[in-house]
Amino acid sequence: MKRPVGVLISGRGSNLGALLAAARAPDYPARIALVLSNRADAPGLALAADAGVPARVIAHREFGADRAAHEAALDGALRAAGVEIVCLAGYMRRLTPFLVGAWAGRMLNIHPSLLPAFPGLETHARALAAGVRLHGCTVHLVTEGVDEGPILAQAAVPVLPGDTEATLAARVLAQEHRIYPAALAALASGVAGPAADGAAALANPLPGAASAA
Ligand code: GAR
Hints:
- The chain is α/β, with parallel strands linked by helices.
- It has helices spanning 14-23, 44-51, 67-80, 97-102, 123-130, 165-188, 209-212, and strands at 3-9, 30-37, 55-57, 85-88, 107-111, 134-141, 151-158.
- The chain contains 7 helices and 7 strands, in the order βαβαβαβαβαββαα.
- The structure holds glycinamide ribonucleotide.
- Glycinamide ribonucleotide is lined by residues 9, 11-15, 44, 89-90, 110-112, 147, 173, 176.
């Protein structure tokens, strides 16, 4: 049985695209049941439409400063669709403890750095400025801190001479598209999950975690 997943986006949606593509495989343990965007102009919405997946805009602007009401609307839509696991895929809103707590252990985020290095925004520019030789991406369970939480998967890429923010971002993004479907498969199939001590049950589900269940 494929477990129903809700994906939250704000923009381009390339990670959503990677999840949709992976979920097409008959033996993938999850299916994308709902896509929610906080922005009506998110290009990723078209990917959901192309895949025949229900998509809704729940615009934060319509709720003004009332974050709780916006999150209650998101939560209601996810539950109405029977969602069991939530994937943040370029969802660029900070979550309150309400939504984080409601989906504790069942909400994943992808972040374009090797956490705990470079949480927050402009990770590629900061990696270049810091002179690191390795950069990458992380999939983690969502907890209350920004870009914090037990790590399920990471992939590292070299920072090469002459790299610009764009070239480095593209190298990292290709890895995001590999590890997000793998980490979701691991969580959906029970290979990885929240451990009692707060550490990830599996340090890195690559490669082949989906088939290990
Ligand atoms: C991705 O690089 C993702 O890792 C990042 O936003 C981009 C969304 O791209 N997320 C964060 O920075 C979250 N802290 P996409 O819309 O093409 O998937």
